[in-house]
Amino acid sequence: MVLTQQGRTKLNILPDREFYAFPRFVTHVDDRFISNLTNLYGKCLRPEFEILDLMSSWVSHLPQEVKYKKVVGHGLNAQELAKNPKLDYFFVKDLNEDEKLQFENCSFDAVLCTVSVQYLQQPEKVFAEVFRILRPGGVFIVSFSNRLFYDKAISAWRDSTGYGRVQLVVQYFQCIKGFTEPEVIRKLPSNDDQENKSPLSKIMQLIGLLSASSDPFYAVIAYRNFKPVHE
Question: What mean pLDDT do residues 69-76 have?
């Protein structure tokens, strides 16, 4: 196990289903983060893949031009998931109450988890379930930034840094025997981001309507058993 009992705690102890009872039709990261994520999906995912979008929402950030064999969505709000045009079907489940995924072994070619890993209280068990349902050579892509619902994130995440959070996700992978060595991708805001902003963007920053810098992009990727080589 990676986390201590204290590290799994949340400030808001109400069931997550209550917190997510009302739909939020917003994106929780900026356009640059989304572009980086979509480009990563374009490189890692193939049209013939069957994909599970874990802890999803009303948008999956998959490449618009690609039609995948199957995309299954999971989340906590049915209204959000029903709006997601990429999903063939979806299911609602609180993984902090029951980590079991109701799929047979080796059901998917890829599993995605976007800006949500910080809310898992039993991440080791969830990662073990992901490993179980992945086909050999299947990929698990976990992406995140520095944004979060502070009172619903676990203590180990809240109290950490960007580097520490990356290492935490790496350890989640490493505690499951059979995943390849995790690959880490970091794209951090540069000084040029601020210089290239438009005058309107700078005014919006001053009045608090826009973040002063781009969202950092982090992704941790590993494969079940081996990383396949595609021609």
Answer: 97
Query: What CATH number labels 6-223?
Result: 3.40.50.150
pLDDT interval class at 209 (50, 70, 90): very low
| Bigger pLDDT: 42 vs 189 | 42
Q: Which residue has the higher pLDDT, 231 or 109?
A: 109
**Locus of tokens 């390849």:** 180
pLDDT of res. 149: 93
State the amino acid at position 165 in one-letter form.
R
Q: Is pLDDT of 208 > 50?
A: no
Q: Which helix or strand (DSSP H or E) is residue 40 part of? A: helix 31-44
Which of 136, 141, 231, 146 lies closest to 188 in space, CA to CA?
A: 146
Phi-psi region of 100 (alpha: psi -120 to 50; beta: other; left: phi over 0): beta
Residues 6 or more apart whose CB falls under 8 angstroms from that of 158 comprise: 11, 148, 150
Distance CA 124, CA 178 (A): 13
- Give the integer Cα–Cα distance in Å for 142 and 218: 8
Question: Following DSSP, what letter does each residue of 67-109 receive, concatenated?
Answer: --SEEEEEES-HHHHHT-TT-SEEEE--TTT-----S-TT-EE
Secondary structure class of 179 (helix, strand, coil): strand
